[in-house]
Design a protein that fits this description.
Chain A: InterPro entries: CTAG/Pcc1. Chain A: Pfam families: Pcc1. Chain A: Its main location: cytoplasm. Chain A: This is L antigen family member 3. The complex is a heterodimer. Chain A contains 2 helices and 4 strands. Chain A is of the alpha+beta class. In chain A, strand 3 (46-53) and strand 4 (56-63) form a beta hairpin. Chain A is elongated, with a radius of gyration of 14 Å. Helices cover 44% and strands 18% of the residues of chain B. Chain B has helices at residues 42-64, 83-100, 109-121, 157-167, 176-201, 206-232, 247-260, 269-272, 276-288, and strands spanning 3-8, 13-20, 23-26, 29-31, 73-79, 104-108, 127-131, 136-142, 145-151, 236-240, 263-266. The interface between A and B is medium-sized, with 23 and 27 residues.
């Protein structure tokens, strides 16, 4: 089950963390490699960091404004869902 | 045998195609069509592609009768194009490349058009007119790289036609340009039969506007292409890109070519319009000479010049220094020259 947490940090920026478990480390690693290459749109005032530890994909955002954070998180979740659907639809086949 | 799958989704078409050594094995495609008077926006286009892409991928494999194990390389459009749709497609391409353990190749969309045009028509060393909703360029291949000899300084000709279509609310199905052309054709026959009647009434119809727009804009394209041909000493023209489907443009270009003793090459709507197989074909060219894209370099880019950073270096075009199959390997280009 994914978990998330949001707060304001010491310099008043908004912070949001998302942790997504995958069935295996391999799948978490594939997901992060697919998601990392495209930069955040240059709206400024937002950073996003992706990392993998064992089978958990972690994403951490810092943002100046709630609106920008919301757009970025929403967009990331769409992308993540697409990657996961792709793995579900075409990942099992590799076992043949 | 080399089999490449290509993913394309830089504008409102999502297409996935499979090519094996110059043979197109499958090329399914879906088009995001908006109501008359409306253009297509990045986020909605991305949503359309997201909804269709896995189905289209399944179709591409099934129609080709292939399994993922049969694929040698995964090609995708790195750019240019609209950001959100490009990302959607790149995500799936990167994911399947990793799932299937295949190398990834990031392709320039414009090069995809050109390489597919050359494959389908057999054009030898043409002056290329690349005209679509997003691009308007005159290109030739010289000294081992693509060179832009002319291009629009404001908007692409297809974009111009599309925006005009929105103003007078022409349907976007199957595409605005196609419907402008149909109205133009209708106008042509009316003019043949009742020219003086229309002229004396002094009234302007939508058909009149379509006619005028096409004639004006296409004349400009033909003239620029002719100048490029004179400059390059070229005897062939290849038209690629969605606007290349337009039969009037082909007709006008044909007249110019005939006057110069040159040959005209064009493809039909399967390959003029954005499709996956053209990306697969360009990817095949790149893969053959060992050009692949690391995952960390596979970011998409909305602006991607056809020259000098285009990826397909060392491609064997006849009439250049090396001929195919002679065993030579072309020296890498130096960037920035």
């Amino acid at each position: 089950m994914a978990s998330s947490m949001g707060a304001r940090n010491s310099v008043g920026q908004l912070q949001f963390t998302l942790e997504v478990p995958f069935p295996s480390q391999r799948e978490a690693s594939i997901a992060v490699q697919s998601l990392i290459p495209d930069c955040e749109p240059r709206k400024g005032g937002i950073t996003k960091t992706l990392s993998v530890s064992a089978n958990i994909l972690s994403v951490k955002w810092t943002a100046e404004e709630a609106r920008i954070l919301r757009v970025s998180v929403g967009s990331f979740l769409d992308h993540l869902a697409l990657v996961m659907e792709t793995m579900d639809a075409f990942g099992r086949i590799v076992q043949q | 045998m080399t089999v490449v799958i290509g993913f394309e989704g830089s504008a409102n078409k999502i297409g996935i195609g499979i090519v094996r050594d110059g043979e197109v094995l499958s090329n399914p495609r879906r088009t995001y069509i908006t109501p008359p008077g409306q253009g297509f926006l990045p986020s909605e286009t991305a949503k359309h592609h997201r909804g269709a892409i896995l189905t289209v991928l399944r179709e591409a494999l099934d129609e080709a009768g292939l399994k993922p194990a049969d694929i040698d390389c995964v090609a995708f459009t790195k750019g240019p194009g609209m950001g959100a749709p490009l990302v959607t497609v790149a995500l799936v391409a990167r994911t399947v490349a990793q799932l299937w353990g295949k190398p990834l190749v990031g392709v320039n969309h414009c090069i995809g058009h050109i390489e597919m045009g050359r494959l389908i028509t057999g054009a030898n060393n043409p002056t290329v007119l690349y005209v679509s909703g997003g691009n308007t360029q005159v290109i030739a291949y010289s000294e081992r790289r693509y060179r832009i000899f002319g291009e629009t300084i404001d908007i692409a000709v297809g974009n111009c036609l599309d925006r005009f279509a929105r103003v007078i609310k022409i349907s976007n199905d199957p595409s605005p340009g196609y419907n402008i052309e149909q109205m133009f054709i209708g106008m042509l026959y009316i003019y043949y039969d009742a020219a003086h009647k229309m002229l004396s009434s002094g009234q302007c119809t939508a058909e009149d506007l379509c006619f005028s727009l096409q004639e004006t804009v296409f004349s400009m394209l033909v003239e620029i292409t002719e100048r490029a041909m004179a400059h390059c000493g070229s005897q062939e023209v290849l038209i690629v890109g969605g606007v290349g489907c337009n039969l009037r443009l082909q007709e006008m270009m044909g007249v110019m070519c005939e006057e110069r003793g040159a040959r005209l090459f064009a493809t039909d709507e399967r390959f003029c319009i954005d499709n996956g197989a053209m990306i697969a074909q360009a990817g095949w060219e790149m893969f053959r000479v060992g050009q692949t894209t690391e995952l960390s370099d596979s970011w998409i880019t909305q602006r991607y010049r056809t020259s000098p950073h285009s990826a397909v270096k060392n491609v064997h075009w006849p009439d250049q220094e090396h001929l195919p199959g002679d065993g030579c390997v072309c020296v890498n280009n130096q960037e920035g020259t």
